[in-house]
Amino acid sequence: MEVQAKAVSPSDERRSPERLERRERRSGEASLADYTSIHMFKPVPEFDDVPVLAFSQLAALDGAALAQPGTLVGLANLAKDRLLATPADNGTQILDLWALRLAALSLVPLTTVAEQEGAQLNDLGTPESFRGTPTVPWRLRVLLVKIQTPVHGQLGAVKYYALAREARGEAWKVRGTPAEAMWRTRLRACGLYVAAMLVQMKDYGTAADHLLVMLESVPEGDDEARAEVVQALAVVAVTMGDARKLAKWLRLLPGAEPAEPDPDAGPVTGSAAAPLLALCAGDAAPLHALVRAGTRDANMLFNLCALRELRALLAELAIKD
Question: What per-residue string of b and e applies to 95-104 under the rule 16 or more CB within 10 Å gives b?
Answer without folding.
Answer: bbbbbbbbbb
